[in-house]
Design brief:
By secondary structure, the chain is of the alpha+beta class. It contains 7 helices and 7 strands, in the order H-H-H-E-E-H-E-E-E-H-E-H-H-E.
Length: about 230
């Protein structure tokens, strides 16, 4: 398999990534002059995130699929979920209480969905895109919805949609950041406050987009009677 060194588009990619790294460095310097991670401010992020619903609507039209918005919590990013594998009703919407547990989720059923999740930073005009795997296991008493976030976009079936998402972001004033380049800690920064809350050290993604670990698995139990 060819790597970046042999790719015919490497020079253009290098130029683009050079601009991206410059934007990352400038934003880190502006937001963290003390070079220390801190929890996002809960100040009103409306001016930067007011376009999340409009972006979701446009992506739904461009990609002919379901999209929905998850608002920020605690000053973090807003998320736009783009359904790529699966069909409505979407498991994430059911998990979050927007929809009732559907009758078609019969006992012993398993559901697997794949999403592109667009993270819209609250403190800077930046965005990142991840592949999200959502799996549901159903039994007679309810369902377990498990969401697993990947460090980038890896499934070949998602790449065409990923490219269209990235192409749409500039119209909303957002610079796309390659998630794979955001996993490492920024050199010379103190992430001890993040380490006290989570395990390990914060990556650039935790400074610029959202505080929670970028590759995280969450599980939610939905009892059938509560639905």
């Amino acid at each position: 398999m060819s790597g970046c060194t042999n790719c015919q588009g490497k020079s253009g990619c290098d130029d683009r990534k050079g601009d991206m790294f410059a934007a990352i460095d400038a934003t880190l310097a502006e937001l963290y002059p003390e070079r220390r991670w801190r929890a996002p401010s809960p100040a009103d992020p409306a001016p930067l995130l007011a376009d999340a619903a409009a972006l979701a609507d446009e992506l739904a039209d461009v990609l002919h699929t379901a999209t929905f918005v998850r608002p920020p919590t605690g000053g973090g990013a807003a998320f736009v979920y783009v359904l790529c594998v699966g069909r409505p009703p979407c498991a994430v919407q059911i998990r979050d209480g927007e929809l009732a547990l559907p009758d078609e989720w019969a006992p012993a059923a398993t559901i697997s969905e794949r999403y592109l999740r667009v993270a819209l930073a609250a403190q800077a005009p930046l965005a990142g895109v991840q592949e999200i795997a959502v799996d549901v296991a159903v039994d007679a008493d309810g369902a377990v919805v498990r969401e697993r976030s990947l460090s980038g976009v890896y499934s070949p079936t998602l790449l065409a949609r990923f490219q269209k998402v990235v192409a749409t972001l500039p119209a909303y004033g957002r610079r796309h950041l390659d998630m794979g380049e955001l996993m490492a800690p920024p050199p010379g920064f103190d992430g001890s406050a993040w380490s006290a809350r989570y395990a390990g050290a914060p990556g650039v993604v935790n400074y610029l987009l959202f505080p929670e670990p970028a590759t995280m698995t969450t599980s939610v139990w939905l009892p059938r009677e509560a639905a």
